[in-house]
Amino acid sequence: MRMELCETPSRYLSCKEEVYQQIMREIDLSREISDEEMQNLIDDMVISQGREYGLSLMERQELARELFYSIRRLDILQELVDEKDITEIMINGMGRIFIEKDGRMMPWDKQFTSKEKLEDVIQQIVSKCNRVVNEASPIVDARLENGSRVNIVLAPVALNGPIVTIRKFPEKPIGVEDLISYGSLTKEVAQELEKLVIAGYNIMVSGGTGSGKTTFLNALSQYIPKTERIITIEDSAELQLQNVENLVNLETRNANAEGTKEINIRDLIRTSLRMRPDRIIVGEVRGGEAFDMLQALNTGHDGSLSTGHANSARDMLSRLETMALMGMELPLSAIRRQIASGVDIIVHLGRLRDKSRRVLEIVEVIGMENEEIIIQPLYLFREEGELEGRIQGSMHMVNELLHREKLMAAGF
Fold this sequence. Notes:
The chain folds into 3 domains: 8-72, no CATH class; 74-168, Beta-Lactamase, CATH 3.30.450; 176-409, 3-Layer(aba) Sandwich (Rossmann fold), CATH 3.40.50.300. Helices cover 36% and strands 24% of the residues. The protein has helices spanning 9-26, 35-52, 57-72, 77-82, 115-127, 176-182, 187-199, 213-221, 265-272, 289-297, 313-327, 332-342, 405-409; strands spanning 86-92, 96-101, 104-107, 139-143, 149-153, 163-167, 203-207, 230-234, 247-251, 279-282, 305-309, 345-351, 357-369, 372-387, 390-397. It has a 9-stranded mixed sheet, with helices on both faces. The chain has a 6-stranded antiparallel sheet with strand order 3-2-1-6-5-4. The longest helix has 18 residues, at 9-26. The radius of gyration is 25 Å and the shape is elongated. 35% of the residues are buried.
């Protein structure tokens, strides 16, 4: 728990500035200094200066922690990154910092001491994953060392200063059993999805922002047989596949001023086809790469998985059509045939008004009829009222799976 600072915060801040400047003067830049050495140096100076400024023991401990975070970690953000209950961190320039905790958004009572300090932290984040962000290239996706996803937008695009959004993921990947315990899906549905994944059905996970698509994709991937070769393709590495020996992780790269060429999702999908994959997992399709993904699904890479933003399973098909047309100018009917033959199942997730994340529908792509893609729902979520502010409901089977060839080939 954070302690309350002394009644005269200016004394605390003055001591902090004094110790910081002393450390900057004494650091030996000619050699690498370990975290332990840095912590010892900070502790010694805080003890010495803390007496002069009349700081209490608790204030000195807080000061030593803040200084270490400022020099070696993410400054004030480190406290939020370390707190497990916080799922989202939103920095609106030098104005306010907001956090999402237990599904609720709230302002935080700290902020950066200066715009320069915030910019230093931003550069520290992007440099660790070989990304570049500046006025010439003001938008970037990055990640923290713990796997958290980071989006950064700088001026002149961001009018109210540097904007940083951090999406945190749990240290221990959430499995299907966890999703069942949370009420996101039922055991019956999980067992059916397990069969579909093992049998090699191509599955799209759709949903809105914050609906849990990446988490669900991670959970589904635990059903992939461990003997298969899996290639993951992402803008910024987020997937946490466990216990897979033959695993290849690919990540996009931005172009930079030094002439480094951009490598995008489309490039990675194309090269992955030459890497003898059993399954390809595309973290998220957002644009023209949808066409390349459909090509992969239609060239024998059964059991592939991906996610996409959509408002419903039917809407996911429309989004795939639009994105595929961005990648290749073909007649719409040809694109629809690619989708109908490549995508087998769509799992749609939603975030309900009580902030819970649920599987809302699972549909099967049947095929083409009169130039339209035909789908049928397999499971639908039905709301059954509320109890103590939490929505009650369950998944109900509405149709049997029509295309059972892959299940039969897998021995089910």
